[in-house]
Amino acid sequence: MIGSFIGRLTSGCAVRTLLGRVGIVGGNFAVMMALAVWLGLDAFGQIAVLWGLAMVAGTVVSVGAPLLLLRILTDGGGVTAGGLWRQIALYPAGLAAVALLVLPRAVPDVPWVAVMLAGLAVNAATCVASIMRGLGSVQLSMLLRDGLPQLALGAAAVLWGPAAGGIMAGAAVIMGGAATLLLVICLRRPAIGALIQPGGDGGAIRYGLWGTAVLGMAAAQVDIIVGGSILRADQIGLYALLRRVANLVALPVSVATWVSAVPISAAFGMQDRTALRQASAAGSRIALLPGAVLFLAALLLLPWVAPFAGQTWSVEARSVALVLLCGAVIQVFLASGMTVATLCGFERFAFGARLLGLFTYLGMVVWSGSTLSALGNAAAYVSGIASGGLLLWALLWARLAIDTSGAALWRAQRGQTWKLP
Fold it and tell me: Collapsing DSSP states into helix, strand and coil, what is residue 79?
């Protein structure tokens, strides 16, 4: 039964979701390009650093709620009403208040109130997206999770810009209002009774999920945050733009995660190893071919990015772009690993892999010191992606004997089988 469900997902839903994701990422990229041209690369670099800080701060105060809600609302367990409110509002607000007592004194030059408000708003939107996913929404939940933050940033720049703090605070207001409205709509739907029930999860903090989420976001933003403290403002601005182009290549990873999350979680909940293997392979199938096509498209797009932003398409910029694209290809090839680990009770594997990736990046940056260049920053970032992704793949293979990489598709075509533990 789960196998036929996976087939229906990959044949229809994944195509629609991929097209929707292309629209979301295209819109996000257009917003970032418009901000870079309007504000200039110096100011855009500052916005990129503050946005990275907000993403990390929001994940820290989230206590892992988006991942937990996605898991418990799709594996049939459900959540209590009190647990839901603790996860979405109580824990994040309390941690944010503590952070605002400490961070302004430790690092006074950052507009921490605006940063924390933006982080709280992004976390709220992501939690509501997980609820919508549990209710069966794929495209709309993905639009809320991945599309709203960037659109809110662009709208805030128009309404409250050009000061960086004003843009961040304005984006928080827009995202918070949208998330609140959509949460009310979700809670009024009859189907919510199957997700919020007295016997469900009580909303206890899962430290493994929390740590995995924090490390994942830190690894995703560390090259912008650390690079922004070493590189010139215009350098980090151009680097952030090139990273946006590379992210276009990795967009099928989000589609694969969002589409395959339900069958992976359901298969694990039923202890159906065959269905779990099929769901993991389906995620790789969703990600691999579109990722290859987008890699070629990005190669054609890149030469236009720097000149459009008023920068020379130099040899260093080309090298940085190529390295970042290679990192995106690695993410596409290892697309299913993180989904399987976080939804199937192997948070410690995901935590260890992300920790290795973060330490790899930071170790290379420390080794470079003040001589760090944009190319060195990109190489360190991609090295972190590769080391963490390969470690997670190896751990899941050893524990489950399931190949979570794109190579699973070739194994299946050749008729090879997995020896289960």
Answer: strand
Who contacts 171 (Cβ-Cβ below 8 Å, separation ≥6)? 118, 121, 149, 152, 153, 155, 156
Phi-psi region of 206 (alpha: psi -120 to 50; beta: other; left: phi over 0): beta
Q: Could you list the pLDDT tens digit for every one of the 421 residues in the chain?
A: 444 444 444 444 556 666 666 677 777 778 887 887 788 778 888 888 899 899 999 999 998 888 888 877 766 677 888 888 988 889 999 999 999 999 999 888 889 999 999 999 999 999 999 888 888 877 788 788 888 888 899 899 888 877 888 899 999 999 999 999 999 999 988 888 878 888 777 777 888 778 878 888 888 888 998 888 888 877 888 888 888 888 878 877 877 776 777 788 778 777 777 888 888 888 888 888 888 888 888 888 777 766 665 566 677 888 898 999 999 999 999 888 888 888 887 888 988 998 999 999 999 999 988 888 989 999 999 999 999 999 999 999 988 888 888 887 776 544 444 333 3
CA distance 31 to 163: 17
Q: Provide the 3-class DSSP secondary structure of residue 199.
A: coil
* Residue matched to tokens 């980090």: 236
Structure tokens at 175: 């995202």
User: What type of residue is 341?
Assistant: A
Structure tokens at 80: 């209590």
What is the model's pTM? 0.75
Looking at residue 88, what DSSP letter applies?
A: I
- Which tokens hold the place of 190? 């009859």
Name residue 79's beta-bridge partners.
Answer: 196, 201
